[in-house]
Amino acid sequence: MFRKKALRINTYRGYGSENLFRASGRALEDENVDFGSNLSTFKTLRNIYKQLESDEIKNARLTLKLSNGQKFETMTDKEGYYHFATTVDELQTLADQEGWVTYTVSYTKEFTKREISDHNSFESQMLIPSKNAEFGVISDIDDTILHTGVASFFKWRVITNTLFKNYDKRIPIEGVSQFYKKLHLGFNGEPVNPFFYVSNSPWNLYDYLSAFLNKHFFPNGPILLRDFRTPFDKTPKPKLPHKQSEILNLLATYPKLKFILIGDSGEKDADIYTKIALEHPGRILAIYLRDVNHKRKTKRIQRIIDNYNATPILLMESAQEALKHAKKHGYID
């Protein structure tokens, strides 16, 4: 007989508030994905296959434990995901200096007969933005901070970059990490301005993208991805585009916090960002769009910019342009 694979829990770094504890992730069979560096093309392709061809553990009872010993139970859905939220008094007292609340997730006793990786203790974090935050930053990932090729013909560069390049071989957009570090510090020089990364990539690539962000020293922040839909998926399609929905959730969660939105000219970032800024006056400080050097798309984005005046907006060819703009408007020192 074939030996059953061990179980694991893929925890996703998330966000909440002073009294709102939220946790999300996915219960899976452990595919032993190797996130080492300098992997061969074959091993990289095998890793991506393992991430996309995931075997979820549905209807699994899980225990969430805060650092003060407080415990909660939740259950995964038919695709292995869990999304938990509850009120916890004085939750902010458990946060570190940058606002991160650490907790663990584990399988309940009914699964102890199965082998479970990491001694059945999977750590995660939830962000509570500091009261001293000057603003928050919501950033796209593909072609905004990571060379992807979303605007390429039939998106062939997306496929090539994702399937055949390990995270350590992927190239960040020049100067963006330094720009984000400046925004994280803000004008007052405190590392408290929160970052949120939003992408249309599937949750299956969470570890891959997280490893890339860590390698290139981007500010820590929740990575908000979406479920991987197949042509045979019978679940209702979301009413709003994923990025728009996530940004609106952040605006609702932090009603007193203003945001800077960062994206690119390759997809619909300009449409979504300007629409949100117009519908929520006073909440968006600025919009930055990286030019992906696609003549037709650049012209379309320029038309949007020419008819928009609700907030400062910049179509930039380099991070240096963004730095100068942010300094001029007082977002950074």
TrEMBL record:
One of its GO terms (molecular function) is phosphatidate phosphatase activity. It holds the Pfam family APP1_cat. Residues 135-291 form the Phosphatidate phosphatase APP1 catalytic domain. InterPro entries: APP1_cat (IPR019236), Mg2+_PAP (IPR052935). This is Uncharacterized protein DUF2183. It comes from Aquimarina brevivitae.
